[in-house]
Amino acid sequence: MLQISKLNAWYGASHALQDISLEVARGEIVCLIGRNGAGKTTTLKSIMGLMDRTRGSVIFKGKELLQQPAHIRFALGLAYVPEERRIVQGLSVRENLRLGLVASAEKKREAELIGEIAMIFPRLAERMDQEAVTMSGGEQQMLAIARAMIAKPDLIMLDEPSEGIMPVLVDEMFELFRSMKAQGTTVLLVEQNVELALDIADRAYVLDQGAVVHQASAQDLLADDEIKERYCSV
Ligand SMILES: Nc1ncnc2c1ncn2[C@@H]1O[C@H](COP(=O)(O)OP(=O)(O)OP(=O)(O)O)[C@@H](O)[C@H]1O
């Protein structure tokens, strides 16, 4: 579904990604791991079209995306949940969910899709008319994921979804990722909790200093203490 080859990205003169190549097949959960500053967030931003300067190739569902703006990539079925969530202050949970459909071809089915999301996210269903920023951090993270899911993306990219969230909600969230996978959604996950991420992932790429230094099945990497110690914050 996603084939990235020799992807490079820059922040000004700083060469942040160097010849990143990776693939995500339909229905997989693929995880990017690596220490702080390894280039995980920059990889997701480059795939979504949020970096000013990139070079290489990002092919999604057979189309080259690298010259396309983010809204076109979104319309083609890519979604991105950034670490900072971007829940809109002053809007209810329902209104935040509606924002996920503003640029979507599915907008006319808004009420039906909000109903479907409410079934998947019972915590949000109970809070539809509450101001979204008054919810806990974990509930806001659920909302950010729900807002990305509502337009039914083919591939969802999640940046550190468990960051700063209480363990009970993290467990609930990872259960949700399993059920997303069971329903055919493809997931590219950046997660600092390596053990948790590898537990649900099919495969993983290890990044270091802007390059892919290792790739393996999640199962093999889970058992590889040397790689985990060398490249991950475990
Ligand atoms: N806005 C920016 N301007 C300049 N350099 C940046 C910017 N954002 C990130 N970088 C640099 O790019 C490199 C990759 O950062 P990136 O955020 O992609 O890493 P990461 O693996 O996601 O780490 P983290 O877990 O800390 O978010 C780092 O050296 C970082 O300092």
Summarize this structure briefly.
GO terms for molecular function: ATP binding; ATP hydrolysis activity; branched-chain amino acid transmembrane transporter activity. This protein is an alpha/beta fold and 234 residues long.
Summarize the structure in words.
- One of its GO terms (molecular function) is ATP hydrolysis activity.
- Residues 2-234 form the ABC transporter domain.
- By secondary structure, the chain is an alpha/beta fold.
- The chain has two domains: 2-77 and 153-231, Rossmann fold, CATH 3.40.50; 87-151, no CATH class.
- The chain contains ten helices and ten strands.
- It has helices spanning 40-48, 70-75, 93-99, 110-120, 122-125, 137-149, 167-182, 194-200, 218-222, 225-231; strands spanning 2-11, 14-24, 29-33, 53-60, 63-64, 78-81, 155-159, 186-190, 203-208, 211-217.
- The protein has a six-stranded mixed β-sheet, sandwiched between helices.
- Strand 1 (2-11) and strand 2 (14-24) form a beta hairpin.
- Helix 3 (93-99) packs parallel to helix 6.
- The longest helix has 16 residues, at 167-182.
- The two termini are 30 Å apart.
- The mean pLDDT is 92.
- The chain binds adenosine-5'-triphosphate.
- Residues 11, 14, 16, 34, 36-42 line the site of adenosine-5'-triphosphate.
Total beta-strand segments: 10
CATH architecture of the largest domain: 3-Layer(aba) Sandwich
Question: What Rg, in angstroms, do the CA atoms define?
Answer: 17 Å
SSE string: EEEHEEHEHHHHEHEHEEHH
The strand order across the widest sheet is: 6-7-8-3-9-10
CATH topology of the largest domain: Rossmann fold
What small molecules accompany the polymer chains?
Answer: adenosine-5'-triphosphate
Q: Assembly state here?
A: single chain
The total number of structural domains is 2
Average residue-wise pLDDT: 92
Fourth CATH level, the homologous superfamily of the largest domain: P-loop containing nucleotide triphosphate hydrolases
Spans where pLDDT lies below 50 across 5 or more residues: none
Query: What about the largest sheet?
Result: 6 strands, mixed
| Structural class by helix and strand composition | alpha/beta
- Form type: globular
Strand content: 25-35%
CA distance, first residue to last residue: 30 Å
For the record, the CATH class of the largest domain is Alpha Beta
SS field, number of helical segments: 10
GO molecular function: ATP binding; ATP hydrolysis activity; branched-chain amino acid transmembrane transporter activity
Keywords: Amino-acid transport, ATP-binding, Nucleotide-binding, Transport
Function: Involved in beta-(1-->2)glucan export. Transmembrane domains (TMD) form a pore in the inner membrane and the ATP-binding domain (NBD) is responsible for energy generation.
Family: Belongs to the ABC transporter superfamily.
